[in-house]
Design brief:
Blueprint (H helix, E strand, L loop, with lengths): L1 E10 L6 E8 L4 E3 H9 L4 E5 L2 E8 L12 E4 L16
Parallel strand pairs: 1-4
Antiparallel strand pairs: 1-2, 2-3, 4-5, 5-6
């Protein structure tokens, strides 16, 4: 199981929002969003850590912003703390 502690975001093509393009694990290894998606598709478990809690990373069909073509995308479900949400992790 890989535990993501940091994210790297890049501007969308139209500059209206940021996309998660890479993640970094607790071991300091950087993975692209596509590598995480391939891992999820292969049955690997990915999670985040923040605020004293874990959250499961899951694949979604595409970016949550309307009319954005980036797909597939990765996210976490909201829970009792925003500190472990994938979008809320510190940058690297």
């Amino acid at each position: 199981m890989s535990t993501v502690t940091h994210v790297y975001k890049q501007p969308s093509g139209d500059g209206s929002h940021l996309h998660i393009s890479r993640v970094r694990t607790a071991e300091g290894i950087s993975y692209s969003r596509a590598e995480v998606v391939r891992g999820l598709d292969a049955g690997e478990s990915w999670r985040t850590w923040g605020g004293g809690a874990f959250a499961r990373i899951r694949k979604v069909a595409g970016c949550p912003h309307p009319d954005c073509p980036v797909a597939p995308y990765i996210t976490t479900d909201p829970d009792h703390t925003a500190q472990n949400n994938l979008d809320g992790l510190p940058p690297f």
